[in-house]
């Protein structure tokens, strides 16, 4: 089962992915792991340079799309990452998380009970057929550019598609508070003005089609989202990671 979690930079994708992974893995009947789109960046030297002379890490051309699609197809078929695959993204810090851990604990227990109930019914069917009942593998794919029109073939691989959102001011504040990012060949720090010149314009260009009148800080276009099988986070949950987790 592949779950795609996408949205703008600093919208909580990685935080949510890690929370879901940990909660899902609390059940012995489930095996969850994360695959980050950022692990498929091209080499530092191959990252495109825009008209302002800045390397553009937030565009489609910065990602090795054939490798990403091949890896996702492998995961979907085999339920595991390709041999030798190692994530560098897990080395990046997402910063302090403001969340109600009591809610996480309650949801964890609820999940265990639900999975156990479902598994018992599943096992009865397997036993009748004389078959074993293996754990369900769930791959959570975290990426800033998973659902764009140009990503149709990759988008089709996901069984569940969750879209997070945040406003410009929050994205800018959170992104600029980060120390930087581990890359294939070193470490990247956003230069001054990077959110305004690169990050936010790219987000608007690639995701305005999901919103009414193309306003990425407005309401989602439910018709488009439904057609593409994308479940959009309610606008009222922006900045509320506890609420986002419960929604997911």
TrEMBL record:
The keyword Iron does not apply. This is P-loop containing nucleoside triphosphate hydrolase protein. It comes from the Eukaryota. Signal peptide: none annotated. InterPro entries: P-loop_NTPase. It comes from Rhizodiscina lignyota. Keywords: Hydrolase. GO terms for molecular function: hydrolase activity.
């Amino acid at each position: 089962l592949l779950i795609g979690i996408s949205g703008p930079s600093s919208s909580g994708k990685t935080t949510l992915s890690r929370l879901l992974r940990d909660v899902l893995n609390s059940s012995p009947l489930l095996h969850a792991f994360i695959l980050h789109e950022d692990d498929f960046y091209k080499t530092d030297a191959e990252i495109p340079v825009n008209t302002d002379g800045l390397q553009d890490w937030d565009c489609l051309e910065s990602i090795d799309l054939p490798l990403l699609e091949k890896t996702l197809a492998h995961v979907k078929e085999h339920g595991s990452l390709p041999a030798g695959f190692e994530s560098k993204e897990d080395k990046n810090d997402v910063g302090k998380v403001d969340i109600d851990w009591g809610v996480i604990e309650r949801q964890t227990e609820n999940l265990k009970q639900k999975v156990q109930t479902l598994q018992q019914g599943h096992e009865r069917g397997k036993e009748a057929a004389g078959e074993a009942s293996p754990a369900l593998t769930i791959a959570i794919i975290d990426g800033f550019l998973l659902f764009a029109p140009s990503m149709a073939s990759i988008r089709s691989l996901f069984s569940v598609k969750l879209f997070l959102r945040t406003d410009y001011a929050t994205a800018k504040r959170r992104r600029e508070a980060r120390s930087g990012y581990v890359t294939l060949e070193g470490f990247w720090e956003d230069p001054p003005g990077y959110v305004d010149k690169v990050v936010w314009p790219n987000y608007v260009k690639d995701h305005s089609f999901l919103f009414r009148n193309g306003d990425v800080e407005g309401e989602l276009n439910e018709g488009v989202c439904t057609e593409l099988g994308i479940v959009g986070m309610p606008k009222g949950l922006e900045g509320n990671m506890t609420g986002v987790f419960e929604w997911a």
